[in-house]
């Protein structure tokens, strides 16, 4: 028969803590929020919005001039991967897996990160009401800023690594791959003329920032409860 202390210790071990250094994670999250926040602010001020749009126009023209059938096909695959047809089942199945494994800290984090990132998209789009680029290569709906694909791609990719891989060198390598995926998703939206560059940069920063920040928050709260 095990004591309560031993049972608690076993539970903590089975939980596989989300983070080993939540202060560092908080700094990364803050840096991402600052990056996204600067773009949000720049687009809210007419003068700086013109500067941002000038860069966006230049990148848009570059994407048009570099149009290629193979690259467009890869970008369209990324478009499907980032759609609700894929993202929603991934969110639900991951939550079900964590529930089945009784990984309560990870489940709390997953729900917080997914709901938090998704709830931010609609209100911000409505607030900015930014038109999309002309002549998109895929069907688009709604406003342009920020990119929902970029938000979801970054949030899901980063959060999956955090909940499925224990902290350590292997996770760091996979976090790099998650970041590369988020960047690829963002660039694919620009290439398909579905979004401006600033839409995707702010979206990726927002999604990754929410994912990392939520992990730091949940881990911090769990540590505080453990020490009481």
N-to-C span: 24 Å
CATH topology descriptor: Vanadium-containing Chloroperoxidase, domain 1
Q: Given this structure, which CATH class is correct?
A: Mainly Alpha
What's the alpha carbon Rg, rounded to whole Å? Answer: 19 Å
For the secondary structure, the number of strands is 0
Secondary structure category: mainly alpha
* Percent range for β-strand residues: under 5%
Q: If you had to describe this structure to a student in words, what would you say it looks like?
A:
By secondary structure, the protein is mainly α. It has one domain: Vanadium-containing Chloroperoxidase, domain 1 (Up-down Bundle), CATH 1.20.144. Helix content is 79%, strand content 0%. The protein contains 9 helices and no strands. α2 crosses α3, α4 packs across α8 and α5 runs antiparallel to α6. The protein starts with a helix and ends with a helix. The N terminus is likely disordered.
Explain the layout of strands and helices:
Layout: H1 4-15, H2 22-44, H3 46-65, H4 69-81, H5 84-100, H6 104-128, H7 148-164, H8 169-191, H9 197-227
Helix pairs in contact: 2-3, 2-9, 4-8, 5-6, 5-7, 6-7, 6-9, 7-8, 7-9, 8-9
Main traits of this protein?
228 residues; globular; disordered N terminus; mainly alpha; Vanadium-containing Chloroperoxidase, domain 1; 9 helices
Structure in a nutshell:
The protein is globular.
């Amino acid at each position: 028969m095990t004591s309560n202390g031993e049972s608690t210790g076993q539970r903590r071990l089975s939980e596989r803590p989300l983070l080993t250094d939540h202060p560092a994670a908080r700094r990364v999250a803050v840096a991402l929020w600052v990056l996204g926040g600067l773009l949000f602010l720049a687009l809210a001020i007419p003068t700086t919005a013109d500067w941002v749009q000038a860069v966006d126009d230049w990148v848009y023209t570059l994407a048009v001039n570099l149009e290629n059938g193979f690259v467009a096909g890869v970008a369209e695959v990324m478009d499907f991967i980032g759609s609700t047809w894929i993202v929603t089942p991934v969110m639900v199945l991951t939550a079900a897996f964590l529930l089945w494994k009784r990984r309560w800290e990870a489940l709390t984090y997953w729900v917080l990160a997914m709901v938090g990132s998704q709830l931010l998209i609609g209100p911000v789009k409505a607030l900015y009401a930014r038109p999309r680029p002309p002549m998109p290569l895929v069907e688009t709906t709604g406003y342009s800023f920020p990119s929902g694909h970029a938000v979801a791609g970054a949030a899901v990719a980063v959060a999956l690594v955090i909940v499925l891989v224990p902290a350590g060198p292997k996770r760091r390598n996979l976090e790099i791959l998650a970041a590369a995926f988020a960047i690829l998703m963002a660039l694919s939206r620009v290439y398909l003329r579905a979004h401006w560059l600033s839409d995707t940069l702010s979206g990726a920063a927002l999604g990754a920032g929410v994912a990392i920040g939520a992990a730091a928050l949940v881990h911090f709260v769990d540590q505080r409860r453990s020490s009481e």
